[in-house]
Amino acid sequence: MNINCTHLSEKPKNYKERGNASLSDNLKYINDTVSHVEINRYQGAGPIKYCVTAKALTINVISGKKAFIVWASQEHEDFETAVQKAKDELKNRIVLGFPILQHASPNDDVKNLVEYK
Fold it and tell me: How many CB atoms lie within 10 A of CB 72?
């Protein structure tokens, strides 16, 4: 054991203290974990917001049809913060085994994404 190692005794930092990880690392983690990532930018009456949604394509065991499972969905005014929060939510939901939605789209939408003519 390294005696000079101080990181083990340091208090873990909360989100505001540590800030965002690198954008490329966060996107790589999300991309390696789920099959589909949606990044939407929209503006209503207020400032521009970014919405990051992580979805995985799976098979419904009851019906045998392909379906999406939404694992994370976060929005924020800052793009990097939205991606960081989506990554953190994705990690936590996978550990718990508790996705947001079990079936997030009609069967026709899934067919269009996975079947080519």
Answer: 24
**pLDDT grade for 15, boundaries at 50, 70 and 90:** low
- Beta partners for 41? 50
Region 28-43: mean pLDDT is 89
Q: Which CATH class is domain 19-114?
A: alpha beta
Residues in the chain: 117
Q: What long-range pairs does 110-114 form, CB within 8 A, spacing at least 24?
A: 110/57, 110/65, 110/66, 110/67, 110/68, 111/66, 113/36, 113/57, 114/57, 114/66
Are residues 41 and 49 in contact, defined by beta-carbon separation less than 8 angstroms?
yes
Q: Are 36 and 23 in contact (CB under 8 A)?
A: no
CA distance 105 to 107: 6
Domain coordinates of the chain in residue numbers? 19-114
